[in-house]
């Protein structure tokens, strides 16, 4: 039995897509112009005009030490290369930036109006809310001359230590004292360049037995004594005295007892059975053994048994009587007797000439 059925072959109905409305231009509530978008509820132009990238005082002051050129920065005195660096930093540290500024680029253009007044043009470019903004401003920076803490201390006679230059068992020569003073000055300059602001000589006094040098830095004083020992030999000891109390803390001053070597260049000493003319006496003694003209050296701590015979400045003139292969005959300048002594190396004087000899209890030696 055949039966006819109505069959729906059209399938499910498609959903009708609604067209989105085309956005209309917005109206800026500030200026009334049409805009395709708002930034902080105003158009881009109004936002750019109203947004303040930075603030800068019209007049600023920079504290600069007239002696050393230091600048008072962040509650302390600091060194800078030149005055324009100080001017630029003063303007920069007083700028107030907006927190929304990104990709900031700043230009500083200082121009001196006088030695103590600078005009600074500041320009800044930054991104804010995706908009590139630009602003420039001008400030006046006045230089205030003021002595820094270290220069004030120096002018006030401040010192932390005393270097006492003396010599062991003798009086130092004027030349040695002068050399020590030069070493002290050079070392202080070097330590100052390394950042020790107290590396300066407050005062110095010279007298018969040596010199006293008052210094601003204990640390620099140690460097000074080390340098003197390296170049001239000797030893140093430190002692401390209470100078006062500051903020509940005791303040001590250091005395550096600097002792130059007992022997100096030109001295003649008796050591280890040898008569030695001293050529150098720094960390070790070096000299010439007058018995055979050989080089002699020993550590400075071994000199406690050395006997001082005099200095080559005490040498006397004597007549050379004859020259042999390994010896020479001279006329003793005191007894006028002919004596035979060791011929020095590289001796080239001829008979009849006058030569310098040094008389000792151990014989006469040609220099």
UniProtKB/TrEMBL annotation:
Ranges of residues in domain Nmd3 N-terminal: 28-260
Domain of life: Archaea
A GO molecular-function annotation: ribosomal large subunit binding
Gene Ontology, cellular component aspect: cytoplasm
Residue stretches in coiled coil: none
Positions of region (Disordered): 1-20
Biased composition (Polar residues): 1-10
Family matches, as Pfam families: NMD3
Protein name in UniProt: Nmd3 N-terminal domain-containing protein
Source organism of this protein record: Methanolapillus millepedarum
Classification of source organism: Archaea, Methanobacteriati, Methanobacteriota, Stenosarchaea group, Methanomicrobia
């Amino acid at each position: 039995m055949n039966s006819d059925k109505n069959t729906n072959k059209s399938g499910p109905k498609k959903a009708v897509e609604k067209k989105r409305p085309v956005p209309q231009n917005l109206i800026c509530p500030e200026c009334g112009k049409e805009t395709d978008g708002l930034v902080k509820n105003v158009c881009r132009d109004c936002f750019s005009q109203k947004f303040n990238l930075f603030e800068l005082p019209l007049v600023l002051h920079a504290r600069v030490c007239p002696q050393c050129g230091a600048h008072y920065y962040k509650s302390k005195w600091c060194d800078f290369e030149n005055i324009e660096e100080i001017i630029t930093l003063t303007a920069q540290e007083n700028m107030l930036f907006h927190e929304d500024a990104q990709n900031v680029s700043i230009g500083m253009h200082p121009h001196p109006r006088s030695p103590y007044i600078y005009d600074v043009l500041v320009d800044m470019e930054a991104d804010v809310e995706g908009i590139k903004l630009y602003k420039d401003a001008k400030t006046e920076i006045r230089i205030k001359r003021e002595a820094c803490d270290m220069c004030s201390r120096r002018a006030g006679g401040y010192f932390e230590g005393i270097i006492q230059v003396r010599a062991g068992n003798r009086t130092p020569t004027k030349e040695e004292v002068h050399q020590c003073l030069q070493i002290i000055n050079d070392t202080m300059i070097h330590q100052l360049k390394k950042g020790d602001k107290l590396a300066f000589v407050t005062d110095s006094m010279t007298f018969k037995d040596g010199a006293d040098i008052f210094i601003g830095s204990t640390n620099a004083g140690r460097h000074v004594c080390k340098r003197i020992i390296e170049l001239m030999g000797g030893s140093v000891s430190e002692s401390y005295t209470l100078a006062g109390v500051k903020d509940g803390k005791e303040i001590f001053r250091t005395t550096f007892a600097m002792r130059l070597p007992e022997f100096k260049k030109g001295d003649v000493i008796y050591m280890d059975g040898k008569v030695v003319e001293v050529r150098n006496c720094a960390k070790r003694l070096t000299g010439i053994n007058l018995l055979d003209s050989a080089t002699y050296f020993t550590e400075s701590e071994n000199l406690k048994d050395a006997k001082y015979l005099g200095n080559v400045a005490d040498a006397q003139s004597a007549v050379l009587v004859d020259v042999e292969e390994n010896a020479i005959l001279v006329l003793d300048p005191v007894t006028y007797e002919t004596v035979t002594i060791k011929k020095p190396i590289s001796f080239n004087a001829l008979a009849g000439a006058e030569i310098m000899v040094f008389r000792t209890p151990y014989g006469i030696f040609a220099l």
